Amino acid sequence: MEKQVYTVSVAKREINANESNSPFEFRVVATEEEIDILREMFHLLDSHTFDTFVRAHVPFLQYHEDRENDQYDRQMIHIYGYIEQIGDERTREHIHSMNLSGG
Q: Rounded to an integer, what distance in angstroms lies between the CA atom of residue 95 and that of residue 74?
């Protein structure tokens, strides 16, 4: 499959095949299959977002004891790791500088 350039906004969960006026955080070079994987990752993140919204209405549960937030956090790190893999050089450098591994 042929790779092409896409712009990605994690905050907005958007992937565009061409640079538009829409703001984006990252540029990736990917096949359609790789973009489908990223879309699925965003979909899973949205389900975790809903779970954290529901959990937020339980006032006695602390954040550090919150399985739903842990799932959301892990998925975000997974998404950034995948974007780093398929990103252009600038994207890879930026995500690497974010030090998401905690090391």
A: 15
Q: Where along the chain do its domains lie?
A: 4-97
Q: Which amino acid is at 93?
A: E
> Helix, strand or coil for residue 90?
helix
- Residue 49: count other Cβ atoms within 10 Å of its Cβ: 13
Q: What is the mean pLDDT, run by run of 10 residues, along the chain of 103 residues?
A: 94 87 91 97 79 56 63 90 97 94 54
> What b/e string do you get for 15-39 counting C-beta neighbours within 10 Å, with b at 16 or more?
beeeeeeeebbbbbebeeebbeebe
Distance between CA atoms of 58 and 34, rounded to whole angstroms? Answer: 37
Query: For 95, how many CA atoms within 13 A lie in the half-sphere containing its CB?
Result: 24
Write the DSSP symbol of residue 64.
Answer: G
pTM listed for this prediction: 0.79
The length of the chain, given as a count of residues: 103
Whether residue 20 contacts residue 80, with contact meaning beta carbons closer than 8 Å, is answered with no
